[in-house]
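Encode chain A's predicted structure.
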Amino acid sequence: MNLGKYKNLIFYITTIAVFSGLMYYFIIEGQTLEVKENIVASTSSGSTWENFLESFKTNLHHPLALLLAQIVTIIMTARLFGWICMKIKQPTVIGEMIAGIVLGPSLVGMYFPEFSAFLFPKESLGNLQFLSQIGLILFMYIVGMELDLSVLRKKAHDAVVISHASIIIPFALGIGLSYFVYQEFAPDGIQFTSFALFIAISMSITAFPVLARIVQERNLQKTKLGTIVITCAAADDITAWCILAAVIAIVKAGSFASSIYVIIMAIAYVFLMIKIVRPFLKRVGDLQAGKNTISKPMVAIFFLTLILSAYATEVIGIHALFGAFMAGAIMPENAKFRTLFIDKVEDVALVLLLPLFFVFTGLRTQIGLLNDSHLWMTAGFIILTAVLGKFAGSALTARFVGINWKESLTIGALMNTRGLMELIVLNIGYDLGVLSPEIFAMLVIMALFTTFMTGPALNFINFIFKSKKNQDEPIQDNDSKYRVLLSFDKPESGSTLLKLAHNFTHKMNGNKSITAMNIAPVDEMHAYDSNEYENSQFQNVIETSHDLNLEVTTLFKASTDIESDLTSITNKGHYDLLLIMLGKSMYEGSLLGRLLGFTTKIINPEKLLNTVKGKGNIFNNSPFDDFTLQILDKTNIPVGVLVEKDFKAADKVFVPIFNLSDFYLLEYAKRLINNNNSQIIILDAAGQIRNNIEVKELIRSIEQVAPNHITLYNEKKIEKEFLNSQDLMLISSKSWKNLIDTKSLWLSDIPSTLIISNP
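Encoded structure for chain A:
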């Protein structure tokens, strides 16, 4: 018997047996030692099941278990409401704010009090608050990094008047508002100055991150208007946080005179951060120049800077969030470096920790306290004051400095966005005891309203001032140019599609127009690096256009709904052909993406047939992924979907014709012959061409212009070598579906394939 193959099993069993026996011996012997000790016997009574239930209930209420349950509930609810808001073209932050109120006493607490008391007991809120504060510190760090101070310095002279007017006007109105509501709503023992300053700062704040996202979503970042409003918001953000720091110092000290020392320390702190810490961080950041990753020691340095900065401002008395904001603002200005660092922080801060702050705010917001018409009228008056101060103040100032009415009103609508930044200010005021629960609830409603109204207000302004040219559309000439739009996700995809478009239009000279479009998910964008991101996306396209001596119009857009924006731009642009390519990124996980990877690897037709017969069928009776199907359904022009297999040029093109409805492919074949001198082989798969006079005349007319460039192929069997020798296959969307439905052996050997769908 060969014991070698069983030696591991014998060793395992022997080890378990010996050491189990040893443990048993010590436990039995150890029990004899209990005689000398005062052992208290368990007083638990009842059945084993009852004891288990009691233990289970205790575990449910354990602080850690409760906190984890709260986090799961909060994230799921926040993502749900954020998704709903995204679908109705609103910033996701509004959905997250609403989620907080829903989970608070205003809804769940009112209608499901037992569930609310179980999930959010008062004794657990301290843990939730501290964890949410960590999320806020990380978020303010990101906000600081998203401020491009170099742009701010260059453009400040154009926007400083609007920015400061958008603060001082609502600030003054906030002071005036406080005069009318102080006696009724200020907490006992709070001085008028402290109350008025917090109401004023809540009127003056602008949510820079939300505003930046809206500017990107509406493709304004490249316009003069977008530059002005981003600069205004950035200057507003810095000014408002400096004012807030001073206000906190005054409130904590009790009077302006008493706060002088705090303000002096704050000025010294800012000087230290700018003159000493910032140059040090720049030298540290320079060590990472050209690298695509940040080493852990460097990550530790920057996080330590963040924590020390937040700690310093908290100890000084101007709140830890100001320190986090300052630490982000002095980060090395290299956009690539900031992108790498934000990627490390953003997901944890925005997805995991920040929703905790929204819910914690919602738990404090008791809309039920506004239980009579007078209170709701007061809330309405607060909203009116906020809108007049920020919207009207910014718009009128912009008009005064010479900006037209449409852009002035747009600036006003964007600067009126308050979002998360407002909630941060309100929570600071609530924590300091300056704001009562009633006024806190009113101001939260105001924050929601002013943020929600931004999108509809912009749409209304655009409706009133209808432009002759949609900003999403490139300039169009009123001529008979053949217009091709190519939409790509990756730079290399854009280059490939441009080569294909060139093959279709090469000899058309001035009678063609090619537009390369990249629509980027707005979640991947940051205000400071949008230009760099756009340049990197179009770099390959620009290089290829130079190689081909081809004039190309570029179109870039940040979007929350790529599918809708793509179809809208396509339908409004008067294009003749849309080219897209199936691959990854935008099309990640798509059917054709998987098919592409599958067909480029599997060369055995038998294996392919076995796969599609049931052993992991990738086709699912559909020739396209959901994204492409939506594009094909919603566009009103021909669409070409490229399945790319190392496409270089369309010199040899194979066009299978399976039925009469495929004959429109011959028009595209004719374009390739006329513009690229392509050799076209047409497969009469159904035997219908030889009997169709119209098609035969079309082929004859092509031959007269370009002899020996088109061949009619009647073979029933297509050899693998033939398919491999072709550069491109043109096929109709209907025939493509038939190839998949019949599990054609072609699929393993086809060349790059352009699937053309006519509307």
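The first helix runs from residue 7 to 31.
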